[in-house]
Amino acid sequence: MKILKEIIWPLVAVVAAFIVGGIVILMLGDNPIEAYRLLLSSSFGSLRDVGWMLHYATPLIFTGLAVAVALRCGLLNIGAEGQLYVAAFAAAWVGIKFGGTIVTVGTDHQNWSWASLPAILLVPMCIAAAIIAGAVWGGIPGVLKAKFGSHEVINTIMLNFIGIALVSYFTQYYYKIPGDPILQTAPIGENATIPQLSSFIPGLPADVPLNVAFLLAILACIAVYIFLWKTKWGYELRAVGQNPSAAEYGGISPKKQIILAMTISGALAGMVGIGEVLGTRHNFYNGFSAEWGFLGIAVALLGRNHPLGVFVAAIFFGVLLRGEIFVDAFTSKVSKDLGWVLQAIIILFVACLQKYSRK
Amino acid sequence: MGEIFTLALLFSSLRLATPLIFAALGGLFSERSGVINIALEGLMLAGAFTAAVVTYQVGDPYIGVLAGVAAGAFLAFIYAVACIKFEADQVVAGMAINFLMIGLPALISGAIYDSSGSTPQIDKILQLPDFYNRISIATIVALALVPVCWWIMYKTPFGLRIRATGENPDAAETAGVNVIRLRYVAVTISGVLAGLGGAYLSIGQSSLFTRNMTAGRGFIALAALILAKWRPVPVLGACLFFGLTEALSIQIQGASWAKIGGEEIPVQFIQIIPYLLTIIVLAGFIGLSRAPKALGIPYSKED
Prior knowledge:
With about 350 residues, chain A is mainly α. Chain A contains 14 helices and two strands. In chain A, strands 1-2 form a two-stranded antiparallel sheet. Chain B has a single domain, classed as Orthogonal Bundle (ABC transporter involved in vitamin B12 uptake, BtuC), CATH 1.10.3470. Chain B has twelve helices and four strands; from the N terminus they run H-H-H-H-E-E-H-H-H-H-H-H-E-E-H-H. A two-stranded antiparallel sheet of chain B has the order 1-2. In chain B, strands 3-4 form a two-stranded antiparallel sheet. Chain B is globular. The chains are: A mainly alpha (about 350), B mainly alpha (about 300).
């Protein structure tokens, strides 16, 4: 019964969003049943489809967890987007500097790296760089909230703009291959890359970019569950989220928990950089995120801020992201922006229904 | 250095500040009544898209502006229903409105114009007029709105009720203010003004709507509001300052004066000034910025 109570309102929100979305599709002059059928078949039609869908879901698991951990402490982290940008750049920087990257400009071969480390050292270093950079960028608004009481929502929005501008600056002036028209860094070293799952799973085509980061995302879900419900720090974090003054009365420092929650939140958002830089693109590309940081808010809300819920919600959004491309291509009127509209309606419904689920 | 502060830069700053002034003044009404308005971005997009489409279809920019204003007001009303009637988390509901306005305009223009990236271009003569090719009529309206908003906020009973509701809704209700209705009105006004700002973007500053064309201006307007400590006249100052930083970051690209010791100033460093300043002000380093006391708290009579 408890589980039913937890999932009933998110389900109502999803169904309501699909009904509203269906009306929109109808008004645009297309068949909603056909659009939704395409949405599903493009994610579950074959192993290849499932692989792509999970690839789309992977960054959302991380950002969903990030937003969920902060929300458990009563904080809304709108800054996951900036955190994952900074983190992805940090991972790429380590991958270049310690990966033996040699850049060819004309006939000139320039060595941009300080060292060429083996994979066993380099991959963990890149992963650590992403996590630490994300943690710092998330921790700043945490510290600002704890020390000065300034609102984390505004600060995380501001830090999104600042973080994205800063990494674009470093990319443009220091790490872009001269002459490259695209704002992206030089490639990371071979030893910094992580394998695609297609090299382990027979039948999964090699063009599916799903990589080891997906397994890390599952581990992150388990780790967040253990942290929140099986450790003292997690308990204290949730206590602050439920009632800061009662927690303080009970000897828990809300300030410490606020900084902790935002730091962990930023670290989780930063982990998006692992799959994208080490697994998929093998460099930092300015514009690599499809607003995953913001989608994380929807994922966390729909997943009721629980790791298992976040996982399921991320899969659901993975289906939307995978499917919207097909809906775009195979219907006459509906473009791939349908996904945005459905997401927005889901968030709005979940936000409105929360009043009832609290009772 | 003398070349930097030319008349052209002044006009460019005014032009870029105009949509910010509209949106920030809109946010002022909503936030002074106690409703956070992170949806300014989406409300601006609603105004921009509707104004561009209606102007193109009807061939009259003023009808386009009215339609943009109506769209902003309508969307703001939906936001108000979520925040006031359903007591939704205002930040979350606001983000939903922003997401909706990334997707919905593209979906609609994709269906009617077969182009989800932008709406068709309107004729030059259908754009909102400029005086002396320099100052848009919208800029003049925006500048005129500042004293009007000040007067409403501080010299009329309506303004007093808004401020009272944002500070202490229970006391306001006891004193005879209909808090719920007042908040609906205040949030809808914010949609009207943000819609105006958006309309100026699409049919004043440019001649068509492009996907996500506000590019964070709603958030900048919000930052200006915070920087101005939720007061109309300082809002103007903050918006002009942000307009100046944007004008500078446009001019700086490739400009000969934009060098310090032979190195060019990266445009990104100028772009982040408004955001950095907002964080610094929020942290209380430049005087305390105190939000309306009841900001973000849903009001229900039973309490």
